[in-house]
Amino acid sequence: MTTQFVQNVRTVDVAIIGTGTAGMVAYRAAKKQTDNVVVIEAAHYGTTCARVGCMPSKLLIAAAEAVHNIESAELFGISTTKPTIDGKAVMKRVQQERDRFVGFVLESIEGFPESDRIKGFARFVDDHTLHVTSGDVDSSSENPKSLERENQYLTVKAKRIVIATGSSSNIPPILKSAGNRLLTNDDIFELEDLPESVAVFGPGVIGLELGQALSRLGVRVKVFGRSGSLAILQDDEILNYANKTFNEEFYLDSKAKVEAIENRGETVALNYRNKEGGLINESFSYVLAATGRTANVARLGLENTSVQLDKRGGPIFDSFSMQTSAEHIFIAGDATSEIPLLHEAADEGRTAGTNAGRFPDVRAGLRRAPLSVVFTDPQMSSVGLNLKQLKQEYPDCYAEGKVSFEGQGRSRVMGKNKGLLKVYAQHGTGQFLGAEMFGPAAEHIGHLLAWSFQQKMTVSQMLDMPFYHPVIEEGLRTALTELNKQLHIGPTVIGDCTDSGPGS
Length: 504
Fold this sequence. Notes:
The protein is α/β, with parallel strands linked by helices. Helices cover 30% and strands 24% of the residues.
């Protein structure tokens, strides 16, 4: 049977590839500059955050927190029976609420004029030409060129193009041996019931968040890493503190030696060395690959363009204008392989879309203070310059202030008194440079610090801000006070100061 081959041509001012957060924001920004804009989507409309990322993971974490609060009630003199966990009910709520969030995104996209939406897989033919294969095509297809031979396709001639193709789960070869027992964060939320056991590979943001949540929901969990890193942490003291804390709840080996993975039908067997070096053979219901994400750019046909690529095969671009080496092609969001965060994707999409729309008038867009949060318990946050950047940009020119939350008043009241916070500032100017935290309310303290960083405040100015009593944020004041002392700016720290209240 011979497939009919049909070609149509459409000319536009701006073509945006992808309808995640970056793509949607880029579309709206470009439309303010020109009405001749199209968005092209290969698979599902919607964002990684709503479908498989931040929202469903936080729903699972919320369920886990509910269980943990009940099981921790004895600390406050409250006796409870062990809670019964209905795994199917847990996953049903996760999916229902997830679908609700996705629905909001779909409503937004469906608000785009139908003439502005093209469904299909886009591939560069040259700097200004895209072949878009018709139909709902998986952009990860091994051979997208063959799709053009088997389907109708549309040729889009675009004066400017924005690449906002997002990312997908990175799966190391060894994990592929798990076969049908392999999960990623793209499909774990589709489970009808909580599994009996899961081996999590990758103690990054996703791995730690999901690993701890599943463990608190009664799933037997072990987390395996290779490099010794934990999520966003860089300070060795904080990292070691977090490692010890997590291991009080579930098995975590951030330098694991896994020798083999074998699919056994209903289970998957792991051969690994434990922390003492002993060889262990253990079976799990599933393996969860939380081993990072890869930008969806490999199959776009970028080799057919003048875009210069880095060693990973991604476009080289200016992080302020989002412009690639091909001046009319821009990139935004997870496709950049830089910071896979929704607020960053939105800012990048707005910059890329605006610049594509008003090209050749290309301007730098807003870049906010670096802010990352991990929703484990205790939480993590990183603000401003990280420790590696500090050592590179301010060698021997920065000071550190620290506080432990083990004795902090409000934290002890709540039974959340675990964690460390370190804050950094520049000698001479006293300007606040960054912070790293593993502790209670890190999501909130992180925001205060990010605002301070973006405003280029000094530590003295930050200490002039109000601190209520008793609140966890008083721990931040303690760290800032010590930092000012290390900068030889502030007064000597006075223990049990009456201005601070007890246990601040």
